[in-house]
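=== Structure Prediction Worksheet ===
Name of assembly: unnamed complex
Input type: mixed (protein and possibly other molecules)
Chain count: two
Listed entries:
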Amino acid sequence: QVQLVQSGAEVKKPGSSVKVSCKASGGSFGGYSVTWVRQAPGQGLEWMGRIIPILGVATYAQKFQGRVTITSDKSASTVYMDVSSLRSDDTAVYFCARGGYCSGATCMRRWFDPWGQGTLVTVSS
Amino acid sequence: EIVMTQSPATLSVSPGERATLSCRASQSVGTNLAWYQQKSGQAPRLLIYGASTRATGIPARFSGSGSGTEFTLTISSLQSEDFAVYYCQQYNNWPKTFGHGTKVEIK
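=== Predicted Assembly ===
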């Protein structure tokens, strides 16, 4: 049973960047997509983007286009999410989760499961 | 973008009582609807997918129903560990959107 293990909490200055990792423990991502979701303090869940690790092809929510980069390292069974030009309202817990099975660039519609434990990113001067 | 609207925002229920949570989609998502439970400081946990299929290990007191634009999550007899926030999510269209959540609290 694959588990997703994320990197630890980060504290960053406004204008800097942060890179959060998500590793498949006990297996690999196989042909599944991996998605990133964030949750600001006391708020709901917001989908940010996803990647098909075997292809390295990423798709982003319009809101995050140009400021978020999702990459993968197949050999390390790890996905990364880089957020640049950080602002105070980027303070949130960032989660990775497994999505649908993909055949090439086409992925099945699927729920998110399992989830990583979350990574708190605090942006403060 | 499909907007998911959950109601009520907060539901106060006594242990042992039934809880009914609603989720409405701004356009049809078929049965591509999931429910998650989130406790404070934890990641969301998948409860229901396909609108009505319980995920592995989820107790039978949790049930989901609906299709198209109207969905319901029912907890038949609330246990102490069920007090949490519940989110619905559509995965029919991109971007995959979540509702704002229903907090189930102890009455």
